[in-house]
Amino acid sequence: MGKVVMYSSVSVDGFVADENDRPGPLFDWLTSGDVPLDESGALKVSQASYDYTRPYWDRIGATIVGRHVFDLTDGWDGKPPGGIDHVVVVTHRPRPEGWDPGAPFHFADGVEAAVARAQELAGDRTVEVAAGDVGGQVLAAGLIDEVRMDVVPVVLGSGKRYFGAVHAQHLLEGPDEVIQGNRVLHLRYRVRR
């Protein structure tokens, strides 16, 4: 099975969105360079960010998100973001009425079930877990192998925390990688077992 990786862009004070669920400048680094990150050409980053991010994105087989993010994005209109093959949504509610059962979205009642389903779908590829409340729950359950952060030079002051409502200490190794891009610092840590 592939690694389970918690990931997001994050402010230097630890937030993935403001109080109104807006990321503000957290994704500005994705348009701060001259190297296309995907086929659309809309995302252009520095060469250092490309060399770090593109290989990681190419390894993702499934992404886990919470129902809140799913609802905020309107389920990405049934098309997983960034070319991801599958999205697993952690929710205690049924799938939305009229939802296309053929869309590559899967609904799980709890983080353990979500990780198991995502690993099944991803095979030996990476399972990405969106940072925030669900990511924090997966970390607290001991199911995260690695933490990746794209630290952006902004202080949001308040909002949605990268690790959600984690209330216990969790030790990380490293950092295993520290890469400086334009307007971003990419960090990668292994979770200590």
TrEMBL record:
<protein>
    <submittedName>
        <fullName>Deaminase</fullName>
    </submittedName>
</protein>
<dbReference type="InterPro" id="IPR024072">
    <property type="entry name" value="DHFR-like_dom_sf"/>
</dbReference>
<dbReference type="GO" id="GO:0008703">
    <property type="term" value="F:5-amino-6-(5-phosphoribosylamino)uracil reductase activity"/>
</dbReference>
<dbReference type="GO" id="GO:0009231">
    <property type="term" value="P:riboflavin biosynthetic process"/>
</dbReference>
<dbReference type="Pfam" id="PF01872">
    <property type="entry name" value="RibD_C"/>
</dbReference>
<feature type="domain" description="Bacterial bifunctional deaminase-reductase C-terminal">
    <location>
        <begin position="111"/>
        <end position="169"/>
    </location>
</feature>
<dbReference type="InterPro" id="IPR002734">
    <property type="entry name" value="RibDG_C"/>
</dbReference>
